[in-house]
Amino acid sequence: MTSSSGSRGFLSGRVGPVIVAVVVTAVVVFAACLALWLNLGGGAWRSEVSVMEVQLRYPDNPGRLTLVTASCNGCPRKTRFEETDQAVYVAVEAFSTPFHGGGDCQDSIEAQLGRPLGDRVVIDGNTGQAVSVRTDR
Predict the structure, then answer these.
(1) What global pTM score does this model have?
(2) Residue 123 pLDDT greater than 60, yes or no
(3) pLDDT tens, 36-47?
(4) Considering only CA atoms, which of 92, 100, 89 is closest in space to residue 44?
(5) Which is nearest to 76 in space by CA: 88, 91, 58?
(6) Residue 128 reports pLDDT greater than 80
(7) I need a surface site. Which of 15, 54, 80, 119 has the fewest CB within 10 A?
(8) Which is it for strands 87-96 and 121-124: parallel, antiparallel or unpaired?
(9) DSSP for 79-130?
(10) Helix (H/G/I), strand (E/B), else coil: 8
(11) Residues 76, 93, 104, CA angle at the centre, nearest 5°?
């Protein structure tokens, strides 16, 4: 016996198989891209990280800064380094690996100013905030 009501289920007819095929294809493509990204790139990408602190560790070279960053073995590198009479602007990026640990440790990189830091402030390009400067003597 057939129903004369004419109602059909959501995935019946021609539309249902097309939707299922599109969803399955999208899932397969996503899984393949994720597998490639994890295997070829280690599941890492570069993004900006904050400069947590600036250290002046070299009394014989007052223009040499050590930038302590909020990355964990992320191979940080400067992406912006600009000096003015009032401030030093620095932006740093590092690898981020959400599937291989977190950012619970810090890295540092060196930067050489054109002249000693003096009373200028250091501005983190990621946050736009002034960074504390510590002098090691």
Answers:
(1) 0.64
(2) yes
(3) 766 665 555 677
(4) 100
(5) 91
(6) yes
(7) 119
(8) parallel
(9) EEEEE-SSEEEEEEEEEE-TTS--S-S-EEEEEE-SS--TT-EEEETTT--E
(10) coil
(11) 65
